[in-house]
Amino acid sequence: GRDRPIVIMLDPGHGGEDPGAIGKYRTREKDVVLKIARRLRALIEKEGNMKVYMTRNEDVFIPLKVRVAKAQKQRADLFVSIHADAFTSRQPSGSSVFALSTKGATSAAAQISGANSERLGPDWRRK
C-alpha cells in the first residue's frame, strides 16, 4: 500500500501583471482559473487520501520555474496547471487535458478532469 497521501499541486495559470486571455466583458483568465482552483481544492480536501497545494492563492505572478519548484518541494504526484484559454466561438464548451509523464501516458488525468468537471457543475462561473 501507499504510505502517504497522493499529493496534488494545483497551478492556477497567469496571475499578477499577466491576466492571460481577456473575455468580451473584460473577464480575465487569471481570475477565472483561480476560482476554479479554489473550488477544485475544496473538493480534493474532502478526500481522505489526498493532500492538495496551490502554486498561488491570490492575484500574484509566479514564474514557471518557481511553480515547478513548489511542486517539487511538496513531492507532488500530480501537477495540474489550470487555464481557461480564449475562443472565438460564442458558446465554447468542454475541457482539454494534456499529460506529460516520464513513465508514459495514462488516462488518469482525463478521468480526474471529467469527474471534477461534472462535480463543479456548469454554473461554477456564476457563484
UniProtKB/TrEMBL annotation:
Top EC category: hydrolase
Keywords: Hydrolase
Record Pfam families: Amidase_3
Reactions the enzyme catalyzes: Hydrolyzes the link between N-acetylmuramoyl residues and L-amino acid residues in certain cell-wall glycopeptides
Entry EC number(s): 3.5.1.28
Database matches in InterPro entries: MurNAc-LAA_cat, N-acetylmuramoyl_amidase_3
Domain MurNAc-LAA: 8-112
An example Gene Ontology molecular-function term: N-acetylmuramoyl-L-alanine amidase activity
CDD domains registered for this protein in UniProt: MurNAc-LAA (cd02696)
GO biological process: peptidoglycan catabolic process
GO cellular component assignments: outer membrane-bounded periplasmic space
Protein name per the record: N-acetylmuramoyl-L-alanine amidase
Organism whose genome encodes this protein: uncultured Pseudoalteromonas sp
